């Protein structure tokens, strides 16, 4: 199983983000460096959720914001390692929508369940596969570095 | 022009995060990119040769879809094209 190494500060930040936006979904990007099997994440970037029509159960990051995040990562000598979002009052498991909309092969998709405003489980799934037609989510071990 | 390659496509661009290409238009630049790195073709385009719906192209700071000439837009050596796959999802099933 691949691993997502993440600093305590980043881990706490993405969970707090989910609590702050509850009952709506939060979303953002994870910046870091590749490991042999996974990612070392050292920073997170909060993003706006453009799905104001259904923000409690959908998220979308505006492409122009992604471009800015990509530039920020390059400027810091980092890569976009993946993305995170929350599932308000819903399990921290990827949904059919998450899968259909996932296109960053090799990257991590981190999901935090937020129940009644409190962050509960946080899981990470690597989008594996050689191409869009063969993609699949594989659960990753999250290692929080103190 | 310089084309910025996103994380998931770098394995198909010899590990590079940027690729320099020549051409007169964005379309020609993309052609040059996929000629140099043929494995990128199936990741960027459908079997019919259309740009995949989830692939966003930014010409400098502009979304190519909203440029008057779209992929026919003229380019220069100092321009940048950013390839950025979309990010969306959510708990909803529908």
Write up this protein:
The complex is a heterodimer of chains A (146) and B (94). Chain A has 146 residues and is an alpha/beta fold. Chain A has one domain: Cytidine Deaminase, domain 2. Helices cover 22% and strands 45% of the residues of chain A. Chain A is built from three helices and eight strands, in the order βαβββαβαβββ. Chain A has helices at 8-21, 63-75, 96-100; strands at residues 3-7, 27-35, 38-47, 59-61, 79-88, 108-115, 118-128, 136-145. A seven-stranded mixed β-barrel of chain A has the order 1-3-2-5-6-7-8. Chain A starts with a strand and ends with a strand. The mean pLDDT of chain A is 97. Chain B is an alpha+beta fold. Chain B has one domain (2-85): Ubiquitin-like (UB roll) (Roll), CATH 3.10.20.30. Helices cover 16% and strands 23% of the residues of chain B. Chain B has helices spanning 26-36, 41-44; strands spanning 2-4, 18-20, 55-59, 62-63, 80-85, 87-89. In chain B, strands 2-1-5-3-4 form a five-stranded mixed β-sheet, with helices on one face. In chain B, β3 (55-59) and β4 form a beta hairpin. Chain B is globular and about 45 Å long. The termini of chain B are far apart. The interface between A and B is medium-sized, with 42 and 27 residues. β4 of chain A pairs antiparallel with β6 of chain B.
